[in-house]
Structure formats: C-alpha cells, structure tokens
Design a protein that fits this description.
Largest sheet of chain A: none
Number of domains of chain B: 2
Order of helices and strands of chain A: HHHHHHHHHHHHH
Helix content of chain B: over 70%
Oligomer: heterodimer
Helix content of chain A: over 70%
Number of strands of chain A: 0
CATH topology of the largest domain in chain B: MetI-like fold
Number of helices of chain B: 12
Structural class of chain B: mainly alpha
CATH architecture of the largest domain in chain B: Orthogonal Bundle
Radius of gyration of chain B: 26 Å
Shape of chain A: globular
Largest sheet of chain B: none
Distance between the termini of chain B: 62 Å
C-alpha cells in the first residue's frame, strides 16, 4: 500500500533526474560517435587549394596505383571465404545436430577456439607452419601444397585462415538458426513423409535456414574485406594492406578509400542486423 | 539359400554409405580447422619451447610491451564497460525507435576496427585533423602541444572505445532489459531504500554480466593489432606490435622464437579471460530467460 501512495510523489522526481542524465549521456555518445565520421568525410571532400568542396579524391580512387589489383584480390578472397565457410560449417553442423551428436562437443569447441586466439598469434603460427614447406617438407606433396598456397596473386592460405577466423561467427549464426527452426522435428517429419536425405537438406532445412546462412555470409564478407593482420604479416596485398602502404604518400586518398570501404562494410552489417531482427520479432508477436 | 547372400551385402553397402554420410559432412570442417588452426598453434608451441625463447620473452623490453598491453586493455575495459552501461541504460529507458537505432548501430560499430578506424581518427584529431585545426582556429588551443596525443596510449584508448563501447552495449542490453521493474517495486514495498535495492538486488544481479562484458572488452583491446599498427606503427610498446616486429625480423634473427613465445603467452592470457567470461555468462543466462 505504501508503494501505491508514495509512487506518484516520488517517481516523477527520480524519473526526471534519470531522463536528464540519459539525455546528457546520449548527447556525449552522439558527439563521440558522429564527429569522427563527419570529420573523416569532410577531410576527404574539402578542397585545400581552392577552398570549397571537391569529389576529386573519390573519383581518383579507381586510377590509384595498385588499387584495382588489391580490390580484385580482396573481393576474390571474400567470395572464396564466404563459399568456403558455408561449405565447411553448414554440413558439419547439420551432421552433428542430426546424425553425429557425439561429435558435437568437438565441432563446437573447434568453432569457438578462434575466439581465444588473437589473429596476430594465429598468423605467427601460420607463418611457422608455412616455413616448413620449403624447409623440412621440401619436395614432398605436402610441402609443395604449402608453397603453392602462397601464390601472391591468389593466396589460398588466406582463404583457409579466413574460414577459420569466420567460423565462430558462422557457428553462432547457424546455431541460432538451427535452434529456432527446430531442425530435428523438421527432419523427422520430412523423413517420415519419405524424402531422401538430400531432399531433407536441400528442400527443407536450407530454405528454413536462409536467414542464418545469409547472416553468416555477410559477417564473413565484412570480416575478409577489412582484415589486415593476417594479410599484412604474410605480406600479401589486399585492400587494407594497400591502404596502409599508400597512407604515407597520400593521406587524403587513404582516408577517402577507408571512408568508402567503411560505408560499404556498414551497409553489409546493417543488412545482417536487420536480418537478425526478423525471427525475434516474429517470436515476440 | 544362395539368393540370401546378395541381399544383406547390398543392404550393408547402403548402410555403410548412410553411416559414412555424416562423417563426410564433418570431414571438410575438421580438415580446414586442422590446417588453419591446430597445426599453426602446434607450430607456434614448437617454436616457443625451442631454446630459451620463453625466457627471453620475459626480458625487460618484452615485459614492458606485455605490461603496456595489459594496462591499456584494463583501462579500455573499465572505461568501455562504464560508458557502455550508461549508454545502454539511457537507450533502454528511451523510446522504441531510439532503442532500435542504437542497438542496430552498435551491432555495426562493434564489428568495426582495423585500418579504416585508425584513419578516421587521424583525419579527426591527428596532426592535420579537422577537429585539431578547428580547435586551433576557434580557440587557439593546439592539440599538438597538449599532453594528449592520438599517437600515444591515450589516443589508442580513445580509438579502441569506438568499437568497445558498442560491444558493451550489445552485451549488457539483454541483462539490463531482464531486470524487471517489479523487482524494484517489490523491494520498495518491503521498505527498501534505493541504495538498499542496488546493494542487495540490482547490484548482485547486474555485477556478473557487467564483469563479463568488461572481460570481453579486455580481450578485444588486447588482441587489437591493425588499428595500432596503422596509427602508431611501433612507437608504443604493445605486445601485438612486438610480435609483428619479431616476426618481420626487425630486431635480430633469433627473435622469431620470441615472437612465438609472446604469441603463446597471449593465447594463454586470452584463454583464461575468455574461460572466466563463459563461466559468468552461463550463470547469467540462467536468470535472463
């Protein structure tokens, strides 16, 4: 009873104070998050010679030396990594969910392991492993494979490492998807109606997991397009390593490329967060 | 009787195919993980325990770097956790549109680190940055002469918080949402003051998820390399930069072993912290749903 009596007296004051602090917090956060973005954009469109605004830094991006090659390589790596991570994780996760529950701890553990290995530590190990190719394993098929995986034009080793780095995110996205659709029941129903395993996966499970698969794909795409550590240490030229290379010579060009790549990555991730939201809201309603 | 022989054989072949199917589905995953994760870590361990790499990784220069990384990460984790909780609280008490906007933006920003982030801040408060020159033109204040520099610890912390605070918002929002208004009303009904409520109800409930979030931020800033490399490029003693230095043979030829040793030590530290994070997170998950 006391609560009912005191609330109208006390609540507005508390609420008012809370709202005021909330507003201050939101303003400070807004300044911190928006000013660097605005400054970066202004930095790239301001015409230092004539004053005013210019788009020349953005229009000069495609002709910049090395840009086309680095972009093409980054996009190829991204496509291969997306395909790779899906081809590797989707069958494995469906298999451990439906047929091999014994292997689930192993697959789950390996999927989450990359989270505890900082990329710089992983790439140190990858370099040590690759060094075995021309050294102890020289002449063996394994050694040859290690050497040819480092073709500077299309380094397959990067695709392998990117698949590993993307696995935790793909695993989470797919795991949530598989739980949400209750894969077991779907499979039992489809099998009971006489469909083959291929049909079960291709016509029942994958269409239901479309959101989760797309989420995994977009996250991987964003990760690969922005990845610097692995490519930088292994001395491959991708978009981010090219950016660092030219930043010394042309500040404004490098900032405009990063702003453009940033807006592109944000767009990708925005698609993911919007796709993420749909199943939750459906469950809520 | 002879016809009975082929039937079981056919079935056993089909059986075998059915039994192999799931294994074939898991095999590519295991192969990629072995090549891209298990073998590199084993190679790293082999390199680290060769000679006295571990011992020299504890020598003064490397110890300073490790300590520098830990210090920076602790500062970032604490600041990020506090700021993240404040932002999440402010957002959750606001309208639905604000909430949706900020949570979506956080999901995007939390994944955003690396080179573009460094360049964005260089364009803002670097030596020739927009805000630096605006401050100078308007107030005469020269950021370059102030104790703050983008290219030192303070600058790195400011830049790291750009992706750490949104990460904290994402991590802590469900827990803040899970604290029901009924609980504080019930405490009030029973005669508790606000301080007592936070001391006995709200605090014990929210402390674990906040601590878990801070641990996650610690790992995030400890492992960050690209941003630091693009921004300060080796002038600040950080363990990630030291590993990169050792790997590129900038220091001396026998330092590759030290790089491996530092990398292994980093993995152990992150693994311990993440294990603590997962333990706390599992306990929080119990009351969250």
């Amino acid at each position: 009873m006391t609560a009912v009596l005191t609330r109208p007296v006390e609540a507005p004051a508390v609420r008012g104070r809370r709202n005021a602090t909330s507003i201050v917090v939101l303003i400070v956060a807004g300044v911190y998050f928006l000013v660097p973005l605005a400054a970066a954009i202004w930095f790239t469109v301001q015409d230092k010679v004539h004053g005013g605004v210019t788009g020349e830094y953005y229009t000069s991006i495609p002709q910049a030396e090395g840009f086309a090659g680095a972009l093409r390589r980054s996009l190829t790596l991204a496509v291969l990594s997306v395909l790779g991570v899906l081809l590797v994780t989707v069958p494995a996760m469906l298999a451990v969910t439906l047929r091999l529950p014994r292997l689930r701890p192993l697959v789950e553990g390996l999927s989450l392991l990359p989270l505890v290995i900082p990329p710089i530590a992983l790439v140190a190990g990858v370099r040590d492993m690759l060094a075995l190719g021309p050294d102890q394993l020289a002449g063996t098929p394994l050694g040859d494979a290690l050497v040819s995986s480092q073709d500077p034009d299309l380094p397959i080793i990067l695709v392998v490492v990117y698949i590993v780095l993307a696995t935790p995110f793909a695993y989470r996205s797919l795991d949530a998807g598989i739980r949400a659709v209750d894969a077991r029941t779907l499979v039992d129903a489809a099998r009971g109606l006489g469909s083959s395993w291929f049909d079960v996966v291709w016509r029942v499970l994958l269409p239901n997991l479309r959101g989760a698969v797309l989420g995994a794909a977009f996250l991987t795409l964003g990760l690969v397009l922005g990845e610097y550590t692995i490519a930088g240490i292994l001395l491959f030229e991708t978009l981010p390593t090219w950016l660092v290379k030219i930043s010394g010579q042309n500040g404004q060009l490098s900032v405009s490329v990063s702003t453009a790549s940033l807006l592109f990555t944000w767009l990708l991730l925005l698609v993911v967060s919007l796709a993420d939201r749909r199943p939750t809201s459906r469950r809520d309603s | 009787m002879t016809t009975a022989v082929p039937t079981p054989r056919v079935r056993s072949l089909a059986d075998r195919a059915r039994r192999c199917g799931p294994w074939l589905a898991v095999a590519p995953f295991l192969i990629v993980m072995v090549i891209g994760l298990v073998l590199p870590v084993l190679a790293l361990a082999a390199g680290a325990f060769e000679g006295d790499a571990i011992k020299s990784s504890f020598s003064s220069g490397y110890r300073t770097a490790f300590w520098g990384s830990v210090k920076l990460s602790v500062v970032c984790a604490v600041l990020g956790a506090v700021a993240g909780v404040l932002v999440a609280r402010a957002v959750l008490s606001g309208g639905a549109l604000l909430r949706r906007l900020v949570l979506t933006a956080s999901g995007v920003l939390a994944n955003f680190g690396g080179v573009p982030l460094a360049f964005m801040f260089i364009a803002t408060i670097g030596n020739a940055g927009i805000v630096t020159s605006l401050l100078h033109d308007w107030t005469g204040f020269d950021l370059g002469d102030s104790p703050f520099s983008l290219y030192q610890f303070g600058g790195l912390a400011v830049v790291y918080l750009y992706f750490l605070v949104p990460l904290m918002v994402i991590v802590i929002a469900p827990a803040l949402d899970g604290v029901r208004a009924e609980w504080s009303e019930a405490a009030q009904n029973l005669g508790a003051t606000r301080a007592q409520y936070w001391r006995h109800v709200g605090g014990p409930l929210l402390a674990p998820p906040i601590a878990a979030g801070a641990l996650l931020l610690f790992c995030g800033s400890l492992s960050a390399f690209a941003t630091a490399q693009a921004m300060v490029g080796g002038t600040v003693p950080l363990v990630t930069l030291q590993i990169a230095n050792a790997l590129s043979g900038n220091v001396s030829p026998d330092n590759a072993g030290v790089g491996a040793a530092l990398a292994i030590e980093m993995i152990i530290l992150v693994a311990v912290v993440m294990a603590a994070y997962w333990t706390i997170e599992r306990r929080t998950a119990r009351w969250l749903r």
